[in-house]
Amino acid sequence: MKVAAATAGDAADWAAMRTALWPNHSDGEHARDIANLLADAGETINLIARNADGVALGFAEAALRRDYVNGCKTSPVAFLEGIFVKPEARGRGVARALVGAVEAWARERGCTEFASDAAPENFASLDMHRALGFEETQRVVFFRKILG
Questions:
Q1: Which of 25, 35, 47, 137 lies 20 to 30 Å from 7 when distance is taken between CA atoms?
Q2: Domains, the chain, ranges and CATH?
Q3: Pairing assessment for the beta strands 114-116 and 77-85 based on DSSP bridges
Q4: What is the pTM of this model?
């Protein structure tokens, strides 16, 4: 398996995996986000994992966050914005390799903390985070009220 920074050649695979992870966003939104990240990654890292035959297995997107990050005490904090591994590739170390690459990137930028989030009902994600060494810091419920 090879984990590398995403390039324009990865855009189609990356978009398909983003759609699988975030189905509430349109293909056009994913394409625009990817184009923007490829044009100027800023303080992000965007990785694609591929097997020896070049088949995309997963992706990870992370960013440096300089604002307050729940449960963290330092700044900047590396934040795992998204991670996805195709179902047929799960349990084979893909997420571990992606997260390991993000951790190395974060350390190079002086980070001492690495954060992420997951929906409380996403048990697979919660289990993955714990298996990769993340510890739960807090749970929160967001509210809103429409003002009409």
A1: 25
A2: 2-131 (3.40.630.30)
A3: parallel
A4: 0.93
How many residues appear in the chain? Answer: 148
In angstroms, the CA 32 to CA 137 distance is 33
Start-to-end C-alpha separation, the chain: 53
- Mean of pLDDT over the chain: 96
Q: Quick check: bond before 76 cis, omega within 30?
A: yes
CB 80 within 8 A of CB 105: no
pLDDT over 70, % of the chain: 100
In 3D space, the residue among 77, 65, 82 whose CA is nearest the CA of residue 6 turns out to be: 82
The answer to whether the CB of 22 falls within 8 A of the CB of 59 is: no
**Is 90 exceeded by the pLDDT of residue 47?**
yes
